[in-house]
Design brief:
The chain is of the alpha+beta class and 237 residues long. It has two domains: 75 residues, Glutaredoxin (3-Layer(aba) Sandwich), CATH 3.40.30; 122 residues, Glutathione S-transferase Yfyf (Class Pi), Chain A, domain 2 (Up-down Bundle), CATH 1.20.1050.10. 49% of the residues lie in helices and 8% in strands. Helix 1 links the parallel strand 1 and strand 2. Helix 1 crosses helix 6. The model has no long low-confidence stretch (mean pLDDT 96). The site of glutathione has 11 residues, from helix 3. InterPro entries: Glutathione-S-Trfase_C_sf (IPR036282), Glutathione_S-Trfase (IPR040079), Glutathione_S-Trfase_N (IPR004045), GSTL1/2/3 (IPR044629), Thioredoxin-like_sf (IPR036249). Belongs to the GST superfamily. Lambda family.
Length: 237
């Protein structure tokens, strides 16, 4: 098993002129995009479980996507998708669970019933959290999305055996971090808003997350992110 801290040489993204890697040749592949927060969840999971040698990254250039991806691999034409055991599986949250239960490495979901229950609650809140924050970018920003970050702050106070959502590091942290990472950068840049001000638990959580090698290597480039979000959200106003 590879170490979660192993620093990889990342393969370059494939564009429309790239040849398709052999399909169903027995290698497990994660079709991904280095800047996609959904795909990042599965990437962190793979790294944390030390599966760098077992799950090969196949990065795509989404702006200039190879046609074979939609035609032959994943008709939804989105990333992430995992090729495993003769099947293609999509949807990032399902994939975090799938990789956790079908591969070796440390388990990402606690057995404790109270933690399981709270984990489910946070798991079903995430899409709403993302929607609230994205919507706020086109509106009043911090005023609208502040309560969603307060919700995270209060959730982080639920278990005292660690700084993570379920105390110890889990799949729930993996589900949230790619988005909190991006929201922190963009709210600071575009609205001069610090999501950690007055939210010490959120601040501590981000700090602890930043120490996790499996995550560190997957972080997005802040400058590119700001450019991309500026185009996507503020330029249309
Ligand atoms: N619900 C999906 C969302 C995946 C998704 O939207 N990925 C984006 C990239 S960040 C994508 O592939 N977009 C390409 C497209 O929609 O054409 C998941 O959680 O995996």
């Amino acid at each position: 098993m590879a170490s979660p801290a192993a620093v990889e040489n990342l393969p370059p993204p494939l564009n429309s002129s790239a040849e398709q890697p052999p399909l169903f040749d027995g290698t497990t592949k994660l079709y991904t995009c280095y800047t996609c927060p959904f795909a990042q969840r599965v990437w962190i999971t793979r790294n944390y479980k030390g599966l760098q040698d077992k799950i090969k990254l196949v990065p795509l250039n989404l702006q200039d996507r190879p046609a074979w991806y939609k035609e032959k691999v994943y008709p939804m034409n989105k990333v992430p998708a995992l090729e495993h055991n003769g099947k293609i599986i999509g949807e990032s949250l399902d994939l975090v669970k799938y990789v956790d239960s079908n591969f070796e490495g440390p388990s990402l979901f606690p057995e404790d019933p109270e933690k399981k229950k709270f984990g489910k609650e946070l798991w079903s809140y995430i899409d709403e959290f993302i929607k609230i924050v994205f919507t706020s970018f086109k509106g009043e920003g911090p005023k609208e999305c502040g309560p969603a970050f307060d919700h995270l702050e209060s959730a982080l106070g639920k278990f005292e055996d660690g700084p993570f959502f379920l105390g110890q590091f889990s799949g729930v942290d993996i589900a949230y971090i790619p988005f909190v990472e991006r929201f922190q950068i963009f709210l600071s840049e575009a609205f001069k808003y610090d999501i950690t001000a007055g939210r010490p638990k959120l601040a501590a959580w981000i700090e602890e997350m930043n120490k996790i090698d499996a995550y560190k290597q997957t972080k997005t480039d802040p400058k590119e992110l700001v450019e991309f979000y500026n185009k996507r959200f503020t330029a249309q106003q």
